[in-house]
Amino acid sequence: MFILDWYKQWLDIRSRYRSDNILVERDEKVCASCETLKQQLEIANYEKQQLLNRILEKPEAPAPTVAPNITPPRMIPWNVRRQMLEREDREKARALRNAPKPDSEINAKEAEETAAFEKELNDATAKREAEAHTGGAQQSN
């Protein structure tokens, strides 16, 4: 029995040695790309956590702003008021001049051009047909 016990202990030692070697080899065989990927994943997770914390934090209440009490003068001299009104009218006129034209005006111009073109086309067609009929009558004589 002594030999069997000794043999069993020897097999246990040998199996432990092999398992330790396998673990050591695994640790040594970690490639650089795996380490890089782990670092990138760690960075991405950290950024996500920072964004989540930023989203979930309660906003600070803005400080109430006090509007200054400015009262306009009760009476504006006529010359100043006239200049203000003229300036506003000039700005309105400039805005109206620079405003895009409505489609109805553009379509009306296109309709006029189309009508003129169709008239010319009909005249040309009628002239061609008249020449064809008169030319055919001359050939048969």
Layout of strands and helices, then pairs:
Blueprint: H1 2-28, H2 32-56, H3 78-98, H4 103-140
Largest sheet: none
Poorly predicted residue ranges: none
State the share of residues found in helices, binned by percent. over 70%
Distance between the termini: 142 Å
Rounded to an integer in angstroms, the radius of gyration calculated over CA atoms is 48 Å
Mean pLDDT: 82
Description:
- It is a single chain.
- The longest helix is centred in the last third of the chain and has 38 residues, at 103-140.
- This protein is mainly alpha-helical.
- The mean pLDDT is 82.
- It is built from four helices and no strands.
- It starts with a helix and ends with a helix.
- It has helices at 2-28, 32-56, 78-98, 103-140.
- The protein is elongated and about 130 Å long.
- The protein has a domain at 105-141.
Short description:
This protein is an all-alpha fold. The protein contains four helices and no strands.
Q: How would you describe this structure in keywords?
A:
about 140 residues; mainly alpha; about 80% helix
